[in-house]
Fold this protein.
Amino acid sequence: MAFIPLYDSNPLRNISRPWVAWGILAANVLVFFLVEDGNFIGEPRRASVGAFGLIPAVINGYAHKPVELAGLPDWITFITYAFIHADFWHLAGNMIFLWVFADNVEDALGHVRYILFYLLCSVVSGYAFVVSDPMSEAPVIGASGAIAANIGAYLLLHPRAKIWVLILLRIPLRLRAIWIIGFWIAVQFLSALNADADDQVAWWAHIGGLATGMILVLFMRQRGVPLFAPAPNETAPHLFHFHRQEPAVAPAAAARSPPEPPAASGPWA
């Protein structure tokens, strides 16, 4: 991983706490330690991956899950796959990105709309991978697609916000979101276009989630929430506004020469 986001100094404006984002993060952690460790149905971890992962060949009717794993309808795996992770580091990496970017997206959408946003992005990003490799029998798992949607939405909402990142796991830098996310997007497309059959990353799920998040935030953000907001403590640029030239202020009266006295044309006391 080229960089890890650590913290953004971007305050919430419309909600007090990102309860939904925190709930999703907690759900992912609980699923990993309870369900995937075998405490749910007493089966090894690979069983939960097979049961709840998204399998393109199953969705497209080219294959069927084993009977012992067929406890849920196939369509539900478009959501459940986003709560299953391969190992602790897979989980940790996704949750760090969720922690940094999701709160401001929830702030822009509101709690209820953010739930719908997250689930829709999970579904569409999963379907993007199903389309990219329709006969794959390997389960797709992980929240990366939905998190990519949060990253895309954040880019449109707060491109000028500054984010602390750890470059190459050792160099801390504070950069604007547009540079960090722009680099991340470039990596996704380059990796997707150059991936081989043995690649373990669902790059097209990332790209599908990214595109979905950027489209949905245009329509789902709350009234009055702008796109391309200035960074905190910065003044918004005057785009598409003409500046009216104010008239010059007249010099103060005290600076003027005293007026000439009027002609003595009347009686004076």
In short: The radius of gyration is 28 Å. Strands lie at 3-8, 162-167, 171-176.
